[in-house]
Amino acid sequence: MEISENGFIFSDNKELLKVDSIHHYLSTESYWAKNISLDTVRRSIENSLCFGIYKDNTQIGFARWITDKATFGWLCDVYIENDYRGQGLSKKLISFMIFHPDLQGLRRYQLATLDAHGLYEQFGFSPIQNPERQMGIVIPNAYTAPAED
What we know:
Blueprint lengths: L1 E4 L2 E4 L7 H10 L9 H9 L2 E7 L2 E10 L4 E9 L8 H10 L9 E4 L5 H5 L28
Parallel strand pairs: 5-6
Antiparallel strand pairs: 1-2, 2-3, 3-4, 4-5
Helix pairs in contact: 1-2
């Protein structure tokens, strides 16, 4: 699936993804995946439904869904390069993704965000109902190499 608007291309074609660019952003600029390895980024892309935004053959945005395409989807790794923020690209990307044919009819769409609640609320996301039912394992600094002895 691909759409073009105002010189930007939004696509779910994994062959267009610039994995090195995605890795660079996630490992150096994101707050959620600092120091993530290139191998981990590659594996995450291989096992997810991924979306990119491109301008003049340069990747300027990315997001992925971890999903079984039947019941559940977890939206993650959403970003727009700093030079392209403030142009409505995040909204366009979320809209492109949320209506993707592989994500229709799911029972639950979920995500975590530090500071983009307003963006996601526009698409129907809200605080988790019954959070006491939710559980998880969180490994702080998972991508930081342990110190050698």
